[in-house]
Amino acid sequence: MGSAYGLILITVIVVIIFGTISTLFTRYKKCPSDKILVIYGKVGKVGDENRSSKCIHGGAAFIWPVIQSYQFLDLTPLSIEVNLQNALSKQNIRVDVPSRFTVGISTEPGIMQNAAERLLGLELPEIQELAKDIIFGQLRLVIATMKIEEINTDRDKFLEAVSSNVETELKKIGLRLINVNVTDINDESGYIEALGKEAAAKAVNDAKKSVAEKDRDGSIGQAQARRDQRVKVAEADAIAVEGENRSKIIIANSEAEKREKTAEAERRASAAEKVQSAKALEEAYLAEEEAEKSRARREKATKEADVLVHAEVEKQKIEIEAEAQAEEFRRIARGEADAIFAKMDAQARGTKEMLEKQAEGFKKLVEAAGGIPEKAVMMMIADRLPEIVKIQVEAIKGIQIDKVTVWDNMGGDKNGGKPATANFLSGMLQSLPPLQDVFNSAGLDLPNYLLKKKEIPMSTNEVSKEENVEIDEKQEQSNEVK
After folding, report:
1. What are phi and psi for residue 186, nearest 5 degrees?
2. Are 34 and 75 in contact (CB under 8 A)?
3. What's the pLDDT tens digit per position in 102-112?
C-alpha cells in the first residue's frame, strides 16, 4: 500500500515537471522574417522611465508568464491608390495628380518602436487608411510649393519632394515609404495641354527649320565641293612639280651636306683623339699632383697631430701641477689661517682672562679699602712707587759729564744767599719732571702725605765746602783723563 502511494506521488511530480517544461517551451517565441515580435508588459527601463514595449525583428525571445505578453506586426507592403484632385499649385491652378504609393512598417529601431506604440492591434486596412490620409495631406502641400512647369517637366524633383515630406510624416507612426508612382497630371483650365501643344508646335517648327537648313547646306556644299575639286587638282599639279624640283634640290643639298659632314666628322674625330690624349696626360699630371698634395697634407697632419698631442699633454700636465700646487697653497693657507686664528683666539682669551683677574683683584682691593676707590688707588700707587722712582732715575742715568768747570765768586747776595754753583745744581735737578706732574699727566693725584715737604736747612759754608769738594774731584778726574 505504501509503495502504491509512493508511485502515485512520483507520477504526480513527473507530470508537474513535464507540464512546467512544456509551458516554458510554449513561452519561447520565434519571430518570422516578415513580422515584428512586440513584447509588452514588464520589459525593463530606459533611464528612469519604464519601457512600453520591446521589438524584435528576427530571432527569438522568452515571454515571461503573467508579467509579459506579445503580439506580431505584419511587414506586408501596403499599396495605396491616391487620386488627388483639384490640388492648388503655386500658380493658383488646380491640378489632378493620380498616383500610387507603396508603404510598410519600418524595421529601423526607433521607427519600429513608434509602430509598436501606434499600430499594434490595427488591421492592415486600418493602417492603409491612416497612411492614405497622411499621404493626401503631404501631396497637397508639395504641389502648393511648386509650379505646373516643374511638376510636369521635372518629375524627379517632384517625386523627391513628395518622398521626403511623406516619409517624414509616415515615420512618426512607424511606417516607411517604399515606392511612389505618379501616373499622369491634368488640370481643369487646359494649361498643361496647352503647354503640350506649344511644345509640339515648337518641335515641328524646329524640325522644318532644320530640314530647310540642311537643304541649303547641301546645295552650298555641292558647289563648294566642285570648286574645291578644281582648286585641289591645280594645287596638286603645282605641288607635284614643286615637289619634283624640291626633291632634286634636296638630293643635291644632301650630297653636299654628306660630303661636308663626312669631312667634319673626320676632323672632329682627329681633334677628339688629340684632345683625349691631351686630357689623359693632363689627368695623369693632375692625379700625380693630387697624390703629392695628399701625401704632403697627410705628413703635415701627422706632424701637427704630434705637436698638438704633445702640447695638449704638456698643457694637461701643467694644469694638473698648477691645480696640485694651488690645492697645496690652499691647504697651507687654510692651515696658516687656522693657526693665526688659534693664536689670536688664545691671545684674546689670555687678555680677557688677565683683565678679568685684574678687575677681580681691583674689586677685592676696593673691598679691602673699605669700598672707597680713592684709597684703593693710593694703595696701588704706594705699591708701584719704587718702580716710578726707578724710572725717574733711569731718565738721567745715561748722561755722561766729562768735565764741569765752575767759576764761582761765592757771592750769595744776588742769588738769595746761595752761591751760583748751588743754584746750578738746584736748577739741574729741577729740570727733571716732578713726581706730581707725572701723576697729573696720567690723570691722577698724589696722596697728601706725599705732597708734604720737610725742609732741611743747609748753611752756606757747608754748601760751599761740598761744591769745592765736588769741583776738586772733577778736576782730578779730568787730569787723570788727560
Report:
1. -130, 160
2. yes
3. 999 988 888 88
